[in-house]
């Protein structure tokens, strides 16, 4: 693979597929965050719904 | 009121129970994400999975190139990162459990026991359980979604792959671009690519297993996997070389192959008919006409440059070019073409391959069959030595005959024509689609017979041939070919990079038939 020079001038092996891997990780993190967000929103909306409903005057 | 109070209490209790669990779930997600990042080779201490290195050179089922990520490494990475994530998650659970046990269930003294009561340990364990219950579905869902995205990308890539291949084929067809090997004369559908970096040869270069738009050689250099993109590469150090795959030892195609439409021009005729001399002067004429009309002319490869220069020098010094050598290749006959790049002032440039086959090839049917470029060409040039016609030869005095006998083709033109046409028919060539340019060479040697002939008029030349008892030949030509044009040529250079006007006319008309108007 391509040789890259570090600041000290030493040749190091650049990892192959780096861009693809960064992309795959970004997709994983984004989807993870979305899943967490959706779950949190769902839980909060359920809880808010329960509390709101309980606060309503009963007939 | 009572219901509302109890609901509020239950809600508070739930929140109190959920908080440590949610906090631990976040810890688990963090550990998992960190392991995934490290597994993808990110961070200060990356631990990416070892990639599968390409082969050193081509094999039957592998190329010396890095695989397209989605078609191999992506799935090995998915396996690697998620098993690393799962291990990291389990390690976090074990670590937390160990901490809780040592803090809340193993008391070295009374004070420690008071500070860390068992009931808090129980809540801690409960938090671990809740955390796992919260984190695992989230991580599972996120992982499945991420893998699904990769899967969708792979499916899109597979679809795109065929679209790209189709686009490449259509664009080439619309532009009329085909590739012909100027060494073996075969049509090349998928050329071998020479890496612009390490020169390693790559086969099957098109969107697929080794990339969609580009292929990365094992040396790290990338080059396009589509012909349309290859044609756009202008930097010499980045442009891959193209090679003919039809031989055991591949040979390089002309520089403009794959980016310029081609004209394949086979020249046939008996030994010593004057084919090589006509071709040598044809090249001089082509250069002169293109330059004169503000067009561009160039040799398409070094081999053509060397051979054309040698032939020109030999012609100028000895009065005739060297004899064409038939070269055996893989048991067949190789007659390398002169490949010329011509760009008229207006219109599209063309790559002209002029195949000069040694006359001996036409002496044997099997050898003619090896001339694969016969199957590709749409215009053929048949060179007739007028001295091989008995009626012409008998007009020479004995002394002149003695001088010219070594330069004379032996078989009568009809014999060579008949043999070649029979073979072409057996090769499956549809000659009703083919144009034949008949060049009667050595006109300078038979001037005494041309006093009453309009040498510029094809009809007059045909009629003149018929007066020389060649009616059977002209009729056979008319019968077999779509169109026949006649030229009288004196293939002589004038030493000032100019050709005889008869060859210039022959060159102009013949190439115009193929759509190259200079």
What descriptors fit this protein?
heterodimer, A: 59 residues, mainly alpha, two-stranded antiparallel sheet, 1 helix, 2 strands, 10% strand, B: 518 residues, alpha/beta, seven-stranded mixed sheet, 17 strands, rod-shaped
Walk me through what this model shows.
The complex is a heterodimer of chains A (59) and B (518). Chain A is mainly alpha-helical and 59 residues long. Chain A is 64% helix and 10% strand. Chain A has one helix at 18-55, and strands at residues 3-5, 11-13. The longest helix of chain A has 38 residues, at 18-55. With 518 residues, chain B is an alpha/beta fold. Helix content of chain B is 45%, strand content 14%. Chain B has helices at residues 2-39, 73-104, 110-115, 118-174, 227-230, 275-292, 302-318, 365-369, 390-393, 398-404, 413-426, 458-467, 471-480, 501-513, and strands spanning 179-180, 187-188, 192-194, 201-202, 214-216, 222-224, 241-244, 251-252, 262-268, 296-299, 327-329, 332-334, 337-343, 350-356, 379-384, 435-440, 483-488. Chain B has a 7-stranded mixed beta sheet, sandwiched between helices. Chain B has a 4-stranded antiparallel beta sheet with strand order 4-3-7-8, with no helix packed on it. Chain B is rod-shaped, with a radius of gyration of 39 Å. Chain B starts with a helix and ends in a 5-residue tail after the last helix. At the A-B interface, helix 1 of A face helix 1, helix 2 and helix 4 of B.
Tell me, briefly, the overall form of chain A. rod-shaped
Q: Classify the helix fraction of chain A into a percent range.
A: 55-70%
Strand content of chain B: 5-15%
Number of strands of chain A: 2
How helical, in percent, are the residues of chain B? Answer: 40-55%
Task: Indicate the low-confidence ranges of chain B by residue numbers.
Answer: none
Structural class of chain A: mainly alpha
Strand order of the largest sheet of chain A: 1-2
Total count of helical runs of at least 4 residues of chain B: 14
**Main sheet of chain A, how many strands, which sense, barrel?**
2 strands, antiparallel
Q: SSE order of chain A in H/E notation? A: EEH
Give the number of DSSP strands of chain B. 17
What sort of overall outline of chain B do the alpha carbons produce when their principal axes are compared? Answer: rod-shaped
Helix/strand class of chain B: alpha/beta
Strand content of chain A: 5-15%
Please give the order of strands in the largest beta sheet of chain B.
10-13-14-9-15-16-17
Q: What's the average pLDDT of chain A?
A: 74
Show unreliable segments of chain A: 1-13
Mean pLDDT of chain B: 87
Rg over C-alpha atoms of chain A, rounded to the nearest angstrom: 25 Å
């Amino acid at each position: 693979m391509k040789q890259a020079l570090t600041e000290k001038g030493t040749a190091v092996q650049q990892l192959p597929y780096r861009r693809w891997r960064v992309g795959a990780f970004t997709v994983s993190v984004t989807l993870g965050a979305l899943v967490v967000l959706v779950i949190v929103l769902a839980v909060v909306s359920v809880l808010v719904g329960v509390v709101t409903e309980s606060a309503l005057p009963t007939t | 009121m009572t219901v509302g109070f109890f609901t509020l209490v239950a809600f508070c209790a739930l929140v109190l129970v959920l908080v440590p669990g949610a906090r631990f779930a976040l810890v688990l997600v963090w550990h998992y994400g960190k392991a995934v990042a490290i597994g993808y080779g990110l961070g200060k201490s990356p631990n990416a999975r070892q990639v599968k290195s390409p082969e050193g050179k081509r094999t039957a089922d592998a190329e010396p190139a890095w695989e397209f990520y989605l078609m191999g490494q992506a799935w090995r990475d998915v396996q690697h990162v998620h098993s690393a994530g799962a291990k990291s998650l389990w390690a976090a659970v074990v670590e937390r459990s160990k901490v809780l046990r040592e803090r809340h269930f193993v008391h070295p003294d009374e004070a420690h026991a008071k500070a860390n009561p068992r009931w808090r340990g129980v809540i801690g364990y409960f938090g671990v359980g809740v955390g796992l219950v919260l984190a695992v579905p989230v991580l599972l869902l996120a992982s499945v979604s991420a893998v699904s995205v990769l899967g969708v990308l792979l499916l899109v890539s597979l679809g795109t792959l065929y679209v790209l291949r189709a686009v490449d084929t259509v664009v080439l067809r619309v532009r009329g671009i085909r590739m012909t090997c100027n060494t073996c004369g075969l049509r090349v559908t998928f050329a071998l690519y020479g890496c612009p970096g390490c020169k390693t040869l790559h086969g099957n270069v098109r969107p697929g297993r080794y990339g969609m738009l580009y292929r990365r050689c094992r040396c790290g250099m990338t080059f396009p996997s589509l012909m349309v993109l290859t044609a756009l590469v202008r930097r010499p150090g980045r442009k891959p070389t193209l090679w003919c795959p039809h031989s055991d030892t591949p040979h390089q195609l002309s520089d403009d192959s794959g980016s310029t439409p081609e004209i394949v021009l086979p020249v046939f005729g008996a030994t010593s008919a004057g084919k090589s001399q006509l071709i040598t002067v044809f090249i001089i004429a082509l250069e002169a006409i293109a330059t004169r009309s503000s067009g561009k002319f160039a040799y398409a490869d070094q081999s053509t440059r060397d051979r054309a220069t040698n032939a020109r020098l030999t012609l100028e010094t000895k009065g005739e070019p060297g004899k064409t050598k038939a070269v055996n290749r893989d048991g067949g006959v190789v007659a390398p073409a002169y490949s010329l790049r011509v760009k008229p002032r207006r219109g599209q440039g063309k790559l002209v391959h002029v195949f000069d086959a040694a006359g001996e090839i036409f002496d044997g049917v099997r050898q003619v069959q090896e001339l694969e470029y016969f199957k590709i060409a749409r215009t053929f040039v048949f060179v007739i030595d007028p001295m091989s016609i008995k009626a012409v030869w008998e007009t020479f005095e004995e002394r002149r005959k003695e001088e010219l006998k070594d330069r004379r083709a032996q078989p009568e033109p009809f014999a060579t024509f008949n043999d070649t046409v029979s073979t072409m028919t057996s090769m499956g060539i549809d000659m009703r689609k083919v144009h034949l340019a008949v060049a009667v060479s050595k006109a300078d040697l038979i001037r005494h017979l041309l006093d009453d002939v309009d040498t510029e008029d094809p009809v007059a030349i045909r009629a003149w041939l018929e007066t020389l008892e060649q009616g059977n030949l002209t009729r056979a030509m008319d019968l077999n070919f779509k169109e026949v044009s006649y030229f009288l040529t004196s293939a002589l250079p004038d030493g000032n990079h100019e050709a005889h006007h008869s060859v210039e006319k022959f060159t102009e008309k013949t190439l115009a038939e193929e759509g190259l108007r200079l």
